[in-house]
Amino acid sequence: MAHLLLLILLFSAQLIAGFSAQKLSPSNNEITITILSIDGGGIRGMIPAKVLEYLDKALKAKDPNADLAHYFDAIGGTSTGGLITAMLAAPSPDDPTRAAFTPAQIVDFYRQEGPHIFNSSRPGIGPQFDGEYLHNITRELLKDTRLSQTLTNVVIPSFDLKKQKPVIFSNYKLEDAPYLNALLSDICISTSAAPSQLPPYYFVNDGVEFNMIDGGVAAGNPTQATISEVLQHNEYPKILVLSLGTGTEKYVENFLFDARLAAFWTPEIWAGVAIDMLGRASSAITEYYLASLFSGFQPPQSTYLRIDEHDLNHDFSNSVNVTKENLEGLEKTGEQLLQEKVVKMNLTTFNLEEGVGTNAEALDRLADILYEERQHRKKGKFIGNGGRPLLEILGVRSDKYQTNWAFPKNLFI
């Protein structure tokens, strides 16, 4: 439990404390909890979608019926990453044991629907876009699916503008906070309501009002929040994390940022550089926390893989640029990212250093681990069928959340 206490202390400044629910005790110390996390970034969600398409193919080579939701105990996503999360975890209307969308279909979604979502001919009263197309297409895709009905646990951060507090839509919280059991469409619209780009989103669920804006305000990279949610409700000693970014431009030192010159900056100049500077600082600290956790405190068998494009072409960095050229460029960037070297952060200098092998090779090894973990659980105490949650197999129903089955979800069954 030492790593759990450390993690709670480490993240307490940035995360909401979760609730105390019934924990899952491992049948042995060989179980590995598996986590997928996807950053926010608007149309740049095309990049992690391409990475997931590769992983999906690697798993399907071993298991033709593989869905990513069957291989991850929890999937976390913010903003565009929250939409990807919901599409991967929502059950198909044709077969509720299978995912509604594959990563390849999500790539097609960005390609086909992106130009309509970020349509400059549909401006909002205040924000850049009116958001109506995003709202409508999200409801059409996710229908009446609620958080409790996902194939695996999901963790989607957002921020309540009126209460000035983060809100984390998480399956793990539903027992103590059933009002969070909202429609996935409402959750996705909430976490994607980027200030200045899309309007804030108001909805009511179970008598509770939500005044929501983009989850990036609280956690642009949702990995911390997702790990925190998982570890509050599981006692497994090993975890595996795949964290996917949406790309950042390489920073080039600027002589104008010399502290001796910056001493004369006006408040207006500081305001102009603050968003990018604070975003980079927050991202670096998040990666520092995670790299520290996995380098020194988790069991050596635990795995942390961060894949992100750290030298994104400036032409592709705009999160709402949906020209044909930009979409093609983002898709190509995702493909090229697979062939780049794995990188990790130096905990002293904060510089990124190349590791051994490419991202594609790392994903191939990850697919091996995920497949072996699923087979291990099938042979052990967690034997089940059809990809359904463990409690379904045990015959435990839960009508409290307007769904068929209660916790735990997935467990690779």
Biggest sheet features: 8 strands, mixed
Strand content: 5-15%
C-alpha-based Rg, rounded: 21 Å
Low-confidence stretches: 1-28, 382-408
Class based on secondary structure composition and strand pairing: alpha/beta
Oligomer: single chain
How many E strands? 10
**What series of H and E elements makes up the topology?**
HEHHEHHHEEHEEHHEHHEHEEHH
> What count of helical segments does DSSP give?
14
How would you state the average pLDDT, rounded? Answer: 83
Q: How far apart are the termini? A: 26 Å
Gross morphology is globular
> Into which percent range does the helicity of residues fall?
25-40%
Quick summary of this structure?
By secondary structure, the protein is of the alpha/beta class. It has 14 helices and ten strands.
